[in-house]
Amino acid sequence: MLHQIFSQAKKQPNLTSLFIFIGAGGTEAALYTIYLALFNPDVSWNRKNNPEPWNRLGPSDQYKFY
């Protein structure tokens, strides 16, 4: 599949920017999903020891991205 993408990019150089921006957008979406899965207090990976982690947050804790 990558060979086909590279061969088309060599044939038509104007597609190179399209491949770069689509790849960057897909990478950014995947990294943001991983970030939310690991650092969001609404996600609980350990149900036995910490079933409701959002209850441990105080009023001064930041839990939003911005």
Automatic annotation (TrEMBL):
Subcellular location: Mitochondrion inner membrane
Family matches, as Pfam families: B12D (PF06522)
Residue ranges of the TM segments: 18-38
Membrane topology: Single-pass membrane protein
Keyword annotations from UniProtKB, A to Z: Electron transport, Membrane, Mitochondrion, Mitochondrion inner membrane, Respiratory chain, Transmembrane, Transmembrane helix, Transport
Main location: mitochondrion
Family: Belongs to the complex IV NDUFA4 subunit family.
Protein name according to UniProt: Cytochrome c oxidase subunit NDUFA4
Organism: Erinaceus europaeus
Species classification: Eukaryota, Metazoa, Chordata, Craniata, Vertebrata
